[in-house]
Amino acid sequence: MTIASYSDLQTATASWIARSDLTSTIPDFVTLFETEANRKLRVRQMMLTQSTTPSSGQFSLPSDYLTWVKVTWTGSPKRELQYIHPSQLAEEYATSPSGMPVKFSVLGSTDGLGVVKIMPTDISAIDFTYYQKITALSTSNTANWLLTAHPDVYLAGSLTEANVFVKDYDTAALWKTRRDALLEEIALLDQKTRGPSAISVPGRNP
Hints:
4-stranded antiparallel beta sheet
């Protein structure tokens, strides 16, 4: 069976668990797996850079934010900002001076998303590189990069949750082991594709 879409995944999950009465619940299994994958995976397909202009030295985190990778000031010359703890940022820059940004921190906010605060403050654009959440599958978003590249991990993840739901804990444990192994393999594959697998040493070889 080809698993190339959200509908394919739901059909495969029902087939593998051999239950015809879980149709309305299978989307929950998919969602629960995606939540787990977002906690564990940090691969290049999840990396995004967005340009934003700070207001009063800060900007909101994207709604699909997981973790930051780097914050780059786009003035001349460009420079990557140094992360420091929020309390240290507040202590070092109590008066919020203006100037070339040097440091940043990630703070909570009332909307629950948080903000990135840079110091000193500046109006130049910031390139914010971060890991974004995997775009959730739905009837309107029938595929994403993870399903396209690794349908097996989606199936294993969905079946883990399905077997927990029907209280078949032994089978759930088997699928969980499979799911976790696949997530680890995806992470290792990402490491291999980011650069050469061998180190080249300059100079003459013996």
